[in-house]
Structure formats: C-alpha cells, structure tokens
Amino acid sequence: MTTETDLLIVGAGPVGLAVAAEAAARGIAHLVVGKPMGFWTDHMPGGMLLRSGTDWHLDPGGEATIERYRDERGLTEDQINPLSLPFYLGYAEWFRARKGIAPVDAWVERLDAAAWSGGGFVATLVDGDTIAARRVVLALGMGPFAHVPPELAALVPPGRGAHTHDRVDFAPLRGERVLILGGRQSAFEWAALIREAGADHVHLSHRHASPAFAEADWSWVTPIVDRMVDDPGWYRRLPPVERQAVGRRLWAEGRLKVEPWLEDRIRRDGITVWPDTRLVACDTLPDGALAATIGTGTTLTVDRVIFATGYAVDLGRIGLLAKGNLTAGVATQDGYPVLDVRFRTTVPGLFLTSMAAGGSFGPFFGFTVSARASARVIGRALAAPSEAVGGRDRLWSG
Q: From which domain of life does this come (predicted)?
C-alpha cells in the first residue's frame, strides 16, 4: 500500500513534533512517521532527570509550553525542577494531543528519490508499505549516532559492554559490579541510578579531571537559538575563533559541570570515581568476572562495562539513507550533512535537522532547545513558492 503526502517528517521526537506543529499551522499537508518519543522511552532510564529548563518547550507558536502544561496541573516551578523524564514525556504527549499530531508508529527502512520525472521521494517502511512525498524532513535525533571509540570497544569481551544508549534497564545489574567509562552528566547519572537499583559497586573511570558539581547556566542559549529564526545564517557567518568560543562556552556548561543534585547520590558507599584514568586492558577471569585495568596498573574486578562515551554524527550511520539511493547526492563535511540556511541538504526537497544539523548551525542542535527554532525556519522554507516541487498532481498511481 502506498500513501501520498506533501511533506513526510521522519522522526516523532521533540524536533519532529515541533516541525509537525509548524507544518500544521502553515496548512502544509504532512505525515509524521516514527514511534512517538521513541528515543526517550526506549533509550533513557525511567529515573532520569533532565538538565533542560521549562523554557525549552516545543511549540513554534509559543502556546503549548511546558509552563502552561505545568500550570494546568496545578504544579509550581519548585515541584517540577529538575524536570523528570516522566514529566517531560507527559508534556510531549499533551503537546501532541493539543496539536492533533498523530504519528504513524512505524520504522522507515529506506528513503529513495522517486523515479517519476516530477521529483519527490519514496519511503519504504519495514512492513513493505510505501509513502510518496514531495518533501522530506529528517528529524532523527541522536539515536543513530551512539559512539564507542573503537580502541575501547576492542578491549571489552563481546557481550560484556553496552553504550548508555542501550543500557537503560538496570534491574539485571542488581548485585553486579559495573565499570562506567565516561565522565560527563550521563556517566555520573547512570552511576547513581545503577547503584540505587542495587548494583554491588559502580566504578566510574574517565580520562580527565572530574567535572564540578555545579548548576549549568543555560540562560544565554535560548536567546542565541531563537535569534536563528530571523537570522538562520548567524552561526555560520561567525569567524572561526568566535565559533570556537561559543563551542567552549557550551562545553563548559554541559561537559565541565554535572548537576549538583547528583553530588550526594555519587558521594556514597558503593560508588568509586577514578579521574585521570583510562581503560588499558580487560580480561575474562576463570570465574567469568572481568579484570579491568585502568590508569597505571589499578585492576578492578567487574561484571559489566558501560560506555558513557557520547554521540558522534556520521551521516553514513543513518540506515534509511545508506539503504536508499540518496547517499551520493547528500554532500557531507566531517560526517555532517552540508545544509543551507533553511536546513536543506544538497538533495532538492530533503531537509535535515536535530543533532545532525550541528555542523552548519552549531552545537545547540544536540539539545531540545533547538526544536522550535529549526521548525520555524524549515516551515518558512516549506511555505515559500520557490520550494514547491513540480510534477504530476499525484505522486503515485496504480
């Protein structure tokens, strides 16, 4: 079966929902495909607390905000901060219902340029159904880009290590000894949650000094991202030294600090932090445990290794592009797609946003603060007469 639409939005996370809301406000016929908030429900632990503030809402129109959701439930700012994962998922569901967004809960297996002369795209779902679309927005988030440095992966025996992206059920770790490799927010939060779930001991090893337990200051980020709505080329016009300064400031807030509400949960029996160390060997012992050697000879006996090693954009890891016929047409630089100031790739009609847009628009696009700004910029481009794709009245017949 084939479905036709003017605009296909692939991804039903925060960015995809924001794009859908903007498309609806502009009267653009669209279809959203993806599990609603799937990355958040499937790849984040239930006890997680978010670093984002209530001003990082999803509505390009500024109506269905987190503050409004909070107020309708009779809650105060102190009661909801820091935002919990269940609260944020509740907000996303409320936003989705309020905007009438009904994603098709399916997985796009591949995306191809259409064979007909009018242009457009054909998305093939895992069940074999297809969607014919004039334009496509890829809002895939961080999921495809979970990164484990190859030199670390090679040290850990098969089946004994997992990235934080995949290790969100901590119940099987009860009574076990766990080594987490990484030293940023997710590493520290996973350590606290795993210990609280009943792990016998959690070791946290990272190559740098431990970050400070201090509240991150994001107040300067929202104005910068909102500025991009009217001046989307602002970041790319910055001289390299100024881009680096912006990146360092964001790094200092997001990477050199972990939230202070973690401090008491980390400084407790059963958690040991090993700063300025790295994994150099990991061998299986006769009893099945792992002997993990870090730093200058310290050996830890553990049962599991968790890689809290972040995400790295590489467009080649987006399966629906790799399997389709568009890969050669999408120009890249350092793994990122080359985008114009409207988030358009070098394939006409194909837009790409979220974390993969960071190469052209800056490091803010790894955060939900960018969702509504990118939606407004993309919406303006989609509504422009020059963006219309010519061709047959119907993209598919027969």
A: Bacteria
